[in-house]
Amino acid sequence: MPDLQIEDLHVRFSGVVALNGVSMEIREGEIFSLVGPNGSGKTTLFNCVSGFVKPHHGTICYGGLDLLSQPPHRIIDAGISRTFQNLQNVPYMTILDNVLLGNHSRIDNWETVRRWLSRDQRESEEQAVLKVLDFLGLANYEQKYLSGQPYGIQKLVEVARSLVSRPKLVLIDEPAAGMNDQETMEIAKIITEIRDDLGITVLVVEHDMSLVMSISDRVCVLDSGNIVTVGNPDEVKEHPDVISAFLGEGAVA
Ligand SMILES: Nc1ncnc2c1ncn2[C@@H]1O[C@H](COP(=O)(O)OP(=O)(O)OP(=O)(O)O)[C@@H](O)[C@H]1O
Ligand SMILES: [Mg+2]
Questions:
Q1: Which of 13, 58, 75, 199 is deepest in the core (most CB within 10 A)?
Q2: pLDDT for 113-144, tens place per residue?
Q3: Which residue among 12, 40, 47, 223 is best mutated to probe the pocket of ligand 1, counting the most ligand atoms within 8 A of its Cβ?
């Protein structure tokens, strides 16, 4: 499995500098967290890696593949998937169909006809979805409509969609946002299992510092599009700029 190399990324939106020369390497097999205040550029970095935003300058390589020259569906084909901070679920579809969407990185006419003709294909895709739902503790949810499900379940469906394409690297944007304590502990366990049991490298954006510090191999702190520091949780916790700007003394156990 390849590493993800990000070099000197610059992104501007009109007058706003979202990323100001950001470089980092996400190593195969690690849980790497991106933290920082609102508007510091975390989601923009996800959008660059997944092909939704083209930076003005910089490079992103994954196992020798130049991601910036690829459209989003090719990036998924290369083994990188993502969740969205604002859930991209379809409320009036079943959970099964919502997760199946993660397999359809590219729907063109031929692909649509092939899937329609091939019951085997549909069955094997459904089996893959059931496995992912089972892994996430959502066995027997497949025929339920998403509409009306608790927010915690909807967030897990978003994660399920990102896993069903069998990625090698998954980008998870704020998995614990809006979750209660119990759900946050559950999501911490799930992220660890995604890496340990499925062998998927995880890049996660999250504001819950206790969660970040408990699951991450390395943490990168962003502020106004600049990297403040990168290191293991203990190094980051003790970094003076991080303590003064983000944590406050004794904020993280
Ligand atoms: N599509 C866009 N058009 C204009 N400005 C944008 C766009 N996307 C992001 N920005 C701006 O770029 C900056 C970085 O935004 P980004 O969404 O990357 O922050 P973030 O770190 O993910 O914040 P949060 O923690 O609130 O999700 C912000 O000032 C934001 O308003
Ligand atoms: Mg964001």
A1: 75
A2: 666 667 777 788 899 999 999 999 999 999 99
A3: 40
18 lines ligand 1 (CB under 6 A): yes
Pairing between β-strand 57-62 and β-strand 65-66 as defined by DSSP bridges: antiparallel
DSSP per position, 12-55: EETTEEEEEEEEEEE-TT-EEEEE-STTSSHHHHHHHHTTSS--
**Cα-based distances in Å from 67 to 59, 62, 187, 220:** 8, 7, 29, 21
**Gyration radius from the chain CA atoms:** 18
Q: Are 60 and 24 in contact (CB under 8 A)?
A: no
Q: Which residues contact 240 (CB under 8 A, 6 or more apart)?
A: none
CB 221 within 8 A of CB 233: no
Reported as a single tens digit per residue, the pLDDT across 170-222 is 999 999 999 999 999 999 999 999 999 999 999 999 999 999 999 999 999 99
Task: List CB-based neighbours of ion ligand 2 within 5 Å.
Answer: 42-43, 85
- Report all structural domains of the chain as residue ranges with CATH numbers, in order of start: 1-79+167-253 (3.40.50.300), 88-165 (no CATH)
Q: How far apart are CA 219 and CA 33, in angstroms?
A: 5
Number of helical H runs and strand E runs in the chain: 10, 10
